[in-house]
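assembly run, all chains below
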Amino acid sequence: MTSSQRRWVFLAGMIGLVAFLLWGLLGLPGFGHYPGPYGSIINRIALRQTNATGTVSAINFDYRGFDTVGEEFILFVAAAGVSIVLRRLRGEREKSAIDEAADRNAPPTSDAVRMAALVFTGPLVVMGWWLTSHAQTNPSGGFQGGVILATAFILVYLAGEFLVFKRFSPVALTDAVEAIGAGGFVAIGLAAVGIGLAYLTNYLPKGEVAGAVSSGGTIPLISFFVGLEVAAAFILIVAELLEQTLLIRQGSA
Amino acid sequence: MQYFPFVVVAWILAVGLYGIVTSRHLVHLIMCLIVVQSSTYVLLLGVGYVTGAVAPYYFDITVHTPAVDPVVQALALTDVVVEAAVTSLLLAFAIQAHKRFGTLDPQELASLKG
Amino acid sequence: MTVAVSTPYTVPIEFMEALQVTVLVLVAAGATAVVLIRRPVHQVIALSVYGILLAVLFLVFQAPDVTLSELTVGAVVLPIVLLLTLAKTRKREE
Amino acid sequence: MDHLLALVVAVPLIAAAAITAAGPLLGDRRRILDALAIAVAASVAVMLAVIMVRTAGGDEVYWFAGFRPARGIAIGIDFDAGSLSTGLACLAAVLVTAAMTFSWRYFERVATYYHTLMLTFLAGMAGFCLTGDIFDMFVWFELMGVSAYALTAYRPEERGPIQGALNFAITNSVGAYLTVCGIGLIYGRTGALNMAQIGTYIGHHRPGGLVTVAFLLIISGFLIKSAIVPFHFWLADAHAVAPTPVCVLFSGVMVELGLYAIARVYWSMFGQALGHRAAISHVFLTLGVLTAVVGALFCFRERHIKRLLAFSTISHAGMFLAGIALFTPLGLAGAAVYVAGHGLVKAALFLCTGIVLHRLGSVNETWLHGRGRQLRATGIVFTLAAFGLADLPPFATFLGKGYIDESAWAHGLPWVMGVFIACSVLVGGAVFRVAGGVFYGLGDPPTEDARMAEMAAEETSETESDKGRTPLTMIIPPAVLVTCAAGIALIPQLGPVVQAAAIRFQDQAGYNATVLGGAHILHPVAIATAESAEVTLSDVLTGVGSVIGALVLAFLALYWRRLPLLRRGYEPGAGLTAPIQRFQSGVINDYVTWIVLGLAAIGGALALVIR
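ok done. output:
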């Protein structure tokens, strides 16, 4: 199809599809009139059952924890896929950061950036850690915390050199951490099966005080492993992309 | 206001698909795919909203306070992770495509492939 | 002014609605901008602005959890990976 | 409570994580991990087989984290194992085992990622089959999808895989996001994610247009995955370029999973609410027949063996959809048996093609003509599998297709049978042509098509090891699979048992009561009367007849230049080249355009018949 043919065919289809979609959307109960019952029930029982004040985390890591298992493995597979697709191939060679294509050199890092990165890395690690460990109480959890932990590592790159970054996170080690994070989640679930409960049952004591860091049973534990997995997955993905951008050059081609 | 958020959902979806269909650059196309997916977040959170209710966190309110639906928020979170994962993988494909074909135009990619 | 319920976060409903409509309009405009901007580097910037707009929308939809992940993904991770990809594929393009 | 249902997903996942973590530690002793991966896949297959046999008398429901439903409201995620869903998951596990065994010497330079991805793929497929929660279904759909995209691009040093993977990933992602939109819609109305609960709610309230729209949006992801015309374009691109053992899974079971999901979604949620069974049946029957015909025509025209097999998969997917769309127990049972038989023989055909690629370094039928004579064992297995694909009795494919035909005939749709025979003859003829030409050197090499030759030339050897012989690990899996395909059809009482499972699968009220009320349904209510599943002499004659037709067609295709009656300048199927290039353009923009147009058309049709 030529571009204009495609555009007309698309427009014809899209008008029909949007009309069809609106027909369905207008059958909804209207904004602000959530009909329940799923969320309303969970809102009522989650605090009592899990002692976790963060209901969304209680759903993610407990009521619908099985979804999150799948979700973690989607990220795990994506990171593995990035490694496969971007692995070094025949005909590609690694070069030092100095390259014949002068305009592709990373500009030298200024002291200001170094300083800023240095100042931010510490707080980011703390913040990532805090978010990961407070899934059961606050709007936070392993995913958000993991991403922020990964960001801290990326800042290390910004501050210094990619090679330092590489030393911080050798691919094999990051891979292992990622696998431990993802596998640990599955293992927590399997431990429940081991003691005769349904898979992923929240079998740890839920704590005395609602909203305490030690509340929520397996929720903070799962959140910790998710945090590990997510941080490692994003470090791996960014590291592979950085390696592509900075180190690998096409060989003879 | 009754249905405005849902009309916005349809708009975002349509615009994103339009972008994919007319795109001549893979990275642009992938960003349009992100837009398509973002319509699902708006839809999910839109259907779970309760007028006048608060966020579902119970550290300083009682259990009987009306709160919005926490389930759709959990679903949207899952969705965001899927987005990040799929986008990273697609971008890796795009990098490799650029190495093999020297272009990121999907139409040129198809004709170069034979 | 009607007040929904007495919580520490009491906000008048009319104000909330106006806020939501405004942000929704901005989000719709943001999505359109991301699609229509054809220069990838500019588009990445538009996309991260769009990510922040979505995060704000989720905040006014009372979803702080999703806000936080949309911020970390939409405004941090995605721009980084997109810009790295563009940096890698920039050459031989023109 | 029995935990096997959870283990079939948890075990491959934890094994995948363990293999990734342990890979670098073991260094040269990686083979241990390969063996572990194969053992895990095999044990999952055994577990699923056990569940399948056990659930013949009634579904089993497993509630994760022990959240059982109270007063008809589910707060957790459940797995619902019936014989049909478990059987399909079991087929997936068997094919994964076969593909990984085949890869033992095939991918010697492979890092551990290959096995990791195969195991996550398996976990995704198993979870997708068993889940009773619509959002959970999306999660496993995505896990399956992401694993599949990464596996498609496993050889990124070539051009084809990258382009195929891109088209595959983008079209399927668009579909998946539309599915989430549908889930959002139905959740916004019912406030439920459990399929049984949603089905109960919308069955009682019948809330108009929303249900129709949600139905189409939810299945749009599955329609794309199952390569129904006009959503099929990605499939040939991805199949042609994915590593051959991976193609086994794509063709043998992934496409069929999409169709399974359509059936599952329809009979657990939408069947009662939508009503208008006859009209909906016609919409999907039309789609199925269209897909079968388009796939068969493209298949016969193709010279790239992997693409040829991919188009045959499209054709078969159309027939499966038609079988499901008959909305009869025997039609669904036929589709189930057909899927099992087709999955096994198609896997064997792909594995044999993998051996050809390993030994001879090409998949171009024209170039390979006569060159495969030395591969005697491979030729025999390929030919046997070709007979299986052409539905020769006693292969399970014959049985499955026979059931669909019979059911269509009994319900006043004799033309469906005619179309099916024509498609079988075309697809079978194409595969026999390959078998005769490549392995026995019969007739003349088919004419070279420049575009196809170029595409086939892209496909270079996937292996680096000794090409002088065929390792036993490569030839045994396809041989076993072909034997299984013939063997399962010989199981006594197969037809009635599968039909009983189909009745259970289609009994929406029974499903809802089982999931939400913990009921044990002994006598599910059939949506249409059960039909005789006996094989009569005329069935066998029809089956043999269509195989003979396929053989004659293959013979004509191989010898047409020497036949006096045919004009010399005439090129069979030449008229198809232009449309192939026009539609199968490889341009992702086109594919998404067709998706939008196709969905609008199906949506319009549904809106007209349901209103």
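The longest helix of chain D spans residues 159-190.

Chain D has one domain: 4-610.

not gonna interpret more than that til we talk
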